[in-house]
Specification:
Strand content: under 5%
Order of helices and strands: HHHHHH
Shape: globular
Structural class: mainly alpha
Number of helices: 6
Number of strands: 0
Largest sheet: none
Helix content: over 70%
Length: 127
């Protein structure tokens, strides 16, 4: 049962991170500033790098576990995405964007659930 829940969370997170990552990779910096506002604090290259890391993280949430090839990369990817969301929260707090903190916090929490579940932390709790 836990494995099914983890897979569902992984797939939802992968779709979300891939979507926003591709958006950051494909749109001009000025359009991202208009739509998201926070990219105005960062150079265009940094925003593109964040998008690339989100796309790679999305792939890392699914492919290693699905293929059985280096499945330890799945919880590593989830941990990295959780760290990215912690940094995103810091950016939104600094910018006073309280309405954007909740989504980043939810994505961070779900990423941590995947990381802990795939690292086997829940098995130590008897789950």
């Amino acid at each position: 049962m836990l494995s099914l829940v983890l897979w569902l969370i992984q797939l939802v997170l992968a779709l979300l991170f891939a979507g926003v990552g591709f958006m950051k990779l494909s749109q001009r910096h000025a359009r991202l500033v208009d739509n998201l506002r926070w990219p105005e604090d960062f150079p265009a290259g940094t925003v593109k790098l964040i998008g690339l890391l989100e796309v790679l993280g999305a792939a890392g949430l699914v492919l290693p576990e699905a293929t059985g090839w280096l499945p330890v990369l799945t919880p590593v990817a989830a941990s990295c995405l959780a760290l990215m969301m912690a940094l995103a929260i810091m950016v939104h707090v600094r910018r006073g964007e309280r309405n954007r903190i909740a989504l980043a916090a939810i994505l961070m929490a779900l990423s941590l659930v995947v990381a802990l579940g795939r690292f086997g932390a829940f098995s130590a709790l008897g789950m």
